[in-house]
Amino acid sequence: MSVAASAAFVATSSIPGQAAASLVANYRCTGGIAGAGVDIEARMTPQVEAGTMNVRWDMSYKSLEKFGSPGFFPEGSSLDLEGVVDISGAWIGQLRPRGGKEQGELLPGNYLELPEGLSDSASLTRTGTIRFKPTTLTVRFTPAEGEVMVNNNTKVAYTGPWSHEYTAPRYSDFLNDVQKTSAQDATAKLEFIGTKVAYIGRRAPDLGPIRVLLDGRTVTDPLVEPGLDRSGEEMTGTETQEILWESPQLAYGKHTIEIVNTEAKDAYVDAFQVITGDIPEPPAHNQATCTLQGNPGAIDITVSGPTDTHSPSNSPSNSPSNSPSNSPSGSPTTGQPNPTPTGTHTNPNNRTTDIGLGRVIVVPSATGTSSATSTPKATGPTATKYYRAQVANTPKGGVDSGEAPDREDRPYGLMAALVIGGAGGGLLLRRRRAAHAGGAH
């Protein structure tokens, strides 16, 4: 909703029990998968309907720079975003809109797709004005478990004379090509992120011995002998897509593998196999730090009260008109006992208390009388106020406001359960196990 005005913007929904407006929050993300910097936009839309309040963030890239894959990963890696919306006024607490997007097979630097939207919701049983204000944003990348075949002409650095050769399908080389050298001390090096790596090549007669270095240290003693079969006998034919060397299990992170042709004989590189094991938590070095740019303002939504007053004096059928003092204790319209305050609860610190199972007790901003049976269900239309931050240069979507925030000093004593849960596109961080995927070209 685009707004340009000098006073508070007010929108009243034509649908009873619902009102919606949106504002734009801009974030600058740096580090990890954001590299030098990525700008993203979150369009926040709070909504109140049928006793539930929901916040949705629609996400989009604002710059040409995008989040990039940190390495080679199979299909199923996930980009997960979580925002925080502060709630004040008639309620005090937070909603945490979440969303994730699974990615296809990735090469280092491939752009990552954003989730279309984040959302979170909570139950609502109190009338009054609620203010929604976007605050922090967290971005995490979780790699998928599985393996990727990195072809010989993809992201591999060669030193010395090497030639790229297409091979006949009958040889069954990976993607029908190899890299070949006959020069002593020629090298091939791959940088990767994962937990394991393997060198894939040919076994054939008269091939030279190969030295393998992992993270700069020689790890082959004795040397790899592609001219010998698996039992150590001289080769008499050609075997392709052979695992000539495989690393032990590694700590997840950045690593390098390098092979060196130790003699002036033929040597081949067909591919490297990069393996990523199960990662219980998103690695910290893959996260991006996002900072809110400027003050985007806030949105106020006013939830109206019940339509009936339950006044005994207005119901002559249940209350004698000439003797108000003799009115029965039941409701004039239902005959049920009138709600009676059962006690008080005071919490000067306005804290929220986690009681488990996704339920949080939300304490209103002032003390007063509390009754679990006297809270009417929120009904009727709602009104939305959009407050622009009082700054010289206001972000897109803001409006100037000369109004003070709604009073928050009214006594509220009712405790309410703010049920935090995913709604719509809200997703918890999750892992997908990916089977072997096709080779990275």
In short:
0% of the residues lie in helices and 40% in strands. By secondary structure, it is mainly β. The model is unreliable at 1-19, 307-383 and 388-441 (pLDDT under 50).
Explain this structure to me?
This protein is an all-beta fold and 441 residues long. Helices cover 0% and strands 40% of the residues. The protein is built from no helices and 29 strands. Strands 1, 2, 3, 4, 5, 6, 7, 8, 9, 22, 23 and 28 form a 12-stranded antiparallel beta sheet that branches. Strands 11-14-19-16-17 form a 5-stranded antiparallel beta sheet, with no helix packed on it. It has a 4-stranded antiparallel beta sheet with strand order 10-21-15-18, with no helix packed on it. A hairpin with a 7-residue loop joins strand 2 and strand 3. The two termini are 44 Å apart. The N terminus and C terminus are likely disordered.
Order of helices and strands: EEEEEEEEEEEEEEEEEEEEEEEEEEEEE
Helix content: under 10%
pLDDT averaged over residues: 74
Give the overall form.
Answer: elongated
What are the segments in which pLDDT stays under 50 over at least 5 consecutive residues?
A: 1-19, 307-383, 388-441
Beta-strand proportion: 35-45%
Number of strands: 29
Tell me the major beta sheet. Answer: 12 strands, antiparallel
Distance between the termini: 44 Å
Structural class: mainly beta
Radius of gyration: 32 Å
- Number of alpha- plus pi-helical segments: 0
Show the helix and strand layout.
Layout: E1 9-12, E2 23-30, E3 38-49, E4 52-61, E5 78-89, E6 93-95, E7 98-102, E8 117-123, E9 128-142, E10 146-151, E11 156-159, E12 163-166, E13 177-181, E14 187-194, E15 196-203, E16 210-214, E17 217-218, E18 239-246, E19 253-261, E20 267-269, E21 271-276, E22 288-292, E23 298-303, E24 343-345, E25 352-354, E26 359-362, E27 368-370, E28 382-387, E29 416-419
Antiparallel strand pairs: 1-28, 2-3, 2-22, 3-4, 4-8, 5-6, 5-7, 5-9, 9-22, 9-23, 10-21, 11-14, 12-13, 13-20, 14-19, 15-18, 15-21, 16-17, 16-19, 23-28, 24-27, 25-26, 26-29
